[in-house]
């Protein structure tokens, strides 16, 4: 697996321009300059903020939650909201006081099923994960949900990097966390991850889940690294929240695809089912089904209605139709 330092350094306008032309395929002169400026601003202070994250350090914390005591109260509130409030129709509406990790029905099913959804950033994991959360009455274990409840995510430049560690702690690692709560109550869970390290997926999630009797399903959302990077850039323009583009292209790349097939080859017996979708489709179109191994319910949840073996929807025939 590539190391993080394998990502090219977008530290000068010249390097950024090379990236904009070669990877983002921006040819118009004015659009190219706009992209250079946006990425330059996004990259600024990125390293400093990620190394001084809010979980441990107070330097960049919101003044209302700067002390450790205030921070602990905030984390407890975020945790409580995640495990008690329904998710909104649009993830972007999650805020402190609004939106949680429960399915839209509010009903959690205790079937001990775990759905691990992997794919590069901007591949559409949220779309797939939300479908599974609602179809299987599952808890959403997505650190992005916790990020959106931490004030720095919105009111600091590169806030996503600043709260990355803290949000992950609240969902997966802290002395109280959403994963622990779900497992203690046998609740179905959906875990969206990039999946660039198959060893981490197996060691941190799959094997421990197997040991306590959970049935695991692995779902791959495939998207070429060029298109993933381009979509991430377009999302950045829409939301003003930056994800390091060189990391997506150079480090994450197509590793989730490799992880899926490496896991299938070496750890097949740890899973109940596998599902591989391609999201290389036009915006608004349904994804394409590439592979389905004992995962019919997952395919139905994602695609909805009747579909052929490739994932194309089969139109219903009205009465009297041909």
Reconstruct the topology from this structure:
Layout: H1 13-22, H2 29-43, H3 46-51, H4 68-84, E1 113-118, H5 125-136, E2 139-140, H6 143-147, H7 152-155, H8 159-162, H9 164-173, H10 178-184, E3 189-193, H11 198-211, E4 215-222, H12 225-239, H13 245-252, H14 255-266, E5 273-278, E6 288-293, H15 296-303
Parallel strand pairs: 1-3, 1-4, 2-3, 4-5
Antiparallel strand pairs: 5-6
Helix pairs in contact: 1-2, 12-13
N-end to C-end Cα span: 53 Å
Indicate the CATH class of the domain at 4-44 and 85-138 and 187-303: Alpha Beta
Give the overall average pLDDT.
91
Element string (H = helix, E = strand): HHHHEHEHHHHHEHEHHHEEH
Total number of strands: 6
Structural class label: alpha/beta
The fraction of residues assigned to DSSP E strands is 5-15%
Helix content: 40-55%
> What are the segments in which pLDDT stays under 50 over at least 5 consecutive residues?
312-322
What is the CATH architecture annotation of the domain at 4-44 and 85-138 and 187-303? 3-Layer(aba) Sandwich
CATH fold node name of the domain at 4-44 and 85-138 and 187-303: Rossmann fold
| Tally of helical segments | 15
Largest beta-sheet details:
6 strands, mixed
Keywords:
disordered C terminus, 6 strands, 15 helices, alpha/beta, 322 residues, Rossmann fold, single chain
Q: Could you describe the 3D structure shown?
A:
- This protein is of the alpha/beta class and 322 residues long.
- The chain has a domain at 4-44 and 85-138 and 187-303: 3-Layer(aba) Sandwich (Rossmann fold), CATH 3.40.50.
- The chain is 46% helix and 10% strand.
